[in-house]
Amino acid sequence: MFCGLILAQNDAPDATGTEETGETKSCYPDMCDLLTEFGAMREKLTSVETRLAASETRLKESEARLKDSENQILELRNKERTKVMFSTAIGQGNKHIGPFNTDTTLIYRRVITNIGGAYSPSTGIFTAPVAGVYYFTIFYHAGGTTPGMLLLYKNDDLVVVTHDYISDGADNGGNAAFLQLQPRDQVYVRLGANSHVWGADYSTTFSGFLVTQM
Q1: Which of 80, 103, 138 is the last residue of a domain?
Q2: How far does the chain reach from its first CA to its final CA, in angstroms?
Q3: Which residues have CB under 8 Å from 165's CB, separation 6+?
Q4: Is the pTM above the cut of 0.70?
Q5: Would you put residue 117 in left (φ > 0), alpha (ψ -120 to 50) or beta?
Q6: What residues pair up with 6 in beta bridges, in sequence order?
Q7: Is residue 111 located within the same domain as residue 47?
Q8: Residues 11 and 95 both lie in one domain
Q9: Each residue's pLDDT tens digit, 108-167
Q10: Which of 46, 58, 110, 197 falls 20 to 30 Å from 74 in CA-CA distance?
């Protein structure tokens, strides 16, 4: 960078008759050096600001990815902590339950396992605590003089049935199903109309567990 001051002169002769000539005088050297250094510093500052802005953007992106990873880890931990499983039996002594004139919800009073507390021994109904896929089984034992029939329901929908007609000996039956449930969905068993099952502690059972959360 050149810094200077140009002085203009008249071409007319002065009073003494001599002619003045044009003259260029340089500015102070220290000032020129300062201006040059200032320009270079501004360029460096602009470059630093650009790099800083890019670094801030990358930092925000990294923080967002880290937050997303933390949320995924927390979700996985919550899923691992959610344990739901139960196993029950009729538990009403050595006698048959039924027959009744209409389908009747069975209450399995003997609770073998009820991790998560989703099964109610007072109503016989399992209520899903979390969304997910669950597995349920139903089994029964009954004397052959009367048909045996169990019906597994999800809310108001019939899912699967196990059934046996009159026979000379004892009857046994069972069935199972995977069900995708939402929170507060209900699963329960009904005794089919005009059928019966054995009500002891070990023969007629209703069980289920959470396979995976959704």
Answers
A1: 80
A2: 70
A3: 147
A4: no
A5: left
A6: 24
A7: no
A8: no
A9: 999 999 999 999 999 999 999 999 999 999 999 998 788 899 999 999 999 999 988 877
A10: 58
